């Protein structure tokens, strides 16, 4: 067992492992240790400057689910944008579940939004389930407010995938877009530009949202397919 694995097993919560394994069916339960996310983030902060951390980041693939999550939390602490993108591109092909994918929240990209778009576009066209999902997630996280452009909606709509975890992220994106860019996003529902599953899931998630008004929700109900 490596030193990093020893650190993770020292934080193990068996009950949490059992609970978590039910939420992430694409991950083999035998590869789950059972470490809560706050503990992983705390560990990432503690070890980010340690010599063995660089070795850990460059030893892929990892054996355990929590190693992947720790890897992601270490990446999001990188301040140098170029270094971050290089390390992220090396890691993305090894992500095999929605939780690791969605848990990575980079900070350094906030000051590099124009060039980050190039990476997002490439990820969304990769055909790799969790790389595509990550790209859509980044578009949702950073480009639905002041940086929004209407063409980004078409980027997400144009993604063709039968993968549940891609289609769910498409619906999440459009439901969030409805809350932030209502007029531009409604066109995609009114003109049925999304496949039926994503269309209806978008409406469901928007109706469940507190950021959508009662009047808007009523309008959305009339658009179900």
Task: Briefly say what this structure is.
The protein is an all-alpha fold and 225 residues long. It has helices spanning 3-9, 14-23, 37-47, 51-57, 65-75, 81-91, 98-103, 113-124, 129-142, 151-157, 164-180, 182-190, 196-208, 214-221.
Walk me through what this model shows:
The structure is a single chain. The chain has 225 residues and is mainly alpha-helical. It folds into 2 domains: 1-109, no CATH class; 112-225, no CATH class. Helices cover 64% and strands 0% of the residues. It has helices spanning 3-9, 14-23, 37-47, 51-57, 65-75, 81-91, 98-103, 113-124, 129-142, 151-157, 164-180, 182-190, 196-208, 214-221.
| Portion in helices | 55-70%
Proportion in β-strands: under 5%
Which sequence of SSEs, written as H and E, runs from N to C?
HHHHHHHHHHHHHH
Task: State the oligomer.
Answer: single chain
Could you tell me the number of beta strands? 0
The averaged pLDDT comes out at 97
Largest sheet: none
- Which structural class do the helices and strands define? mainly alpha
Number of domains: 2
Radius of gyration: 19 Å
Q: What's the N-to-C terminus distance?
A: 52 Å
Please, how many helices? 14
Bulk shape: globular
Question: Segments where pLDDT lies below 50 for 5+ residues?
Answer: none
């Amino acid at each position: 067992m490596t030193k990093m694995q020893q650190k993770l097993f020292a934080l193990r919560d068996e009950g949490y492992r059992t609970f978590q394994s039910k939420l992430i069916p694409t991950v083999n339960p035998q590869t789950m240790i059972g470490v809560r996310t706050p503990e992983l983030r705390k560990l990432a902060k503690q070890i980010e400057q340690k010599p063995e951390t660089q070795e850990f980041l460059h030893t892929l693939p990892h054996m355990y689910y929590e190693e992947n999550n720790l890897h992601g939390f270490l990446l999001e602490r990188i301040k140098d944008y170029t270094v971050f993108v290089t390390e992220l591109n090396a890691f993305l092909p090894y992500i095999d579940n929605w939780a690791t994918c969605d848990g990575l929240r980079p900070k350094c990209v906030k000051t590099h939004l124009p060039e980050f778009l190039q990476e997002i576009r490439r990820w969304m066209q990769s055909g790799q389930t969790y790389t595509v999902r990550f790209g859509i997630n980044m578009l949702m996280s950073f480009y639905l407010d002041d940086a929004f452009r209407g063409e980004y909606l078409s980027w997400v709509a144009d993604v063709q995938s039968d993968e549940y975890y891609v289609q769910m992220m498409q619906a999440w994106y459009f439901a969030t877009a409805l809350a932030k860019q209502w007029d531009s996003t409604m066109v995609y529902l009114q003109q049925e530009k999304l496949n039926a599953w994503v269309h209806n899931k978008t409406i469901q998630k928007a109706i469940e949202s507190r950021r959508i008004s009662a009047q808007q929700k009523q309008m959305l109900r009339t658009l179900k397919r």
